[in-house]
Amino acid sequence: MCLSVPGKVVEIQNNTAKVEVGGLLREASMAVCPDVVVGDYVLIHAGFAIQKLDENEALETLELLKRVAEIQ
Is the whole model's pTM more than 0.85, yes or no? Predict the structure, then answer.
């Protein structure tokens, strides 16, 4: 099973972005999503931004992940 998590792009330099995921910054390659700009939300998997997301969808997913973590 694969898991990707949504995050907000806060900086892009060359082909690498800094993405905020749950309060932490992660680096992600933008090779698969070259049209993403700072402020967009993306799905991150294995160090790659694999898909651009609608902000509402991203925030809803983050909230659901937070609830799952609280249950466990």
Answer: yes
CB 16 within 8 A of CB 30: yes
Rounded distance between C-alpha atoms, residue 55 and residue 63, angstroms: 12
Task: Fold for 5-71, please state it.
Answer: SH3 type barrels. (2.30.30)
Parse the chain into domains and list their residue ranges.
5-71
CA distances from 34 to 5, 10, 50, 70 (A): 18, 15, 10, 34
Q: What is the 3-state secondary structure (H, E, C) of 16-41?
A: EEEEEECCEEEEEECCCCCCCCCCCE
Residues 2-52 have pLDDT tens digits of 788 999 999 999 999 999 988 899 999 999 999 999 999 999 999 999 999
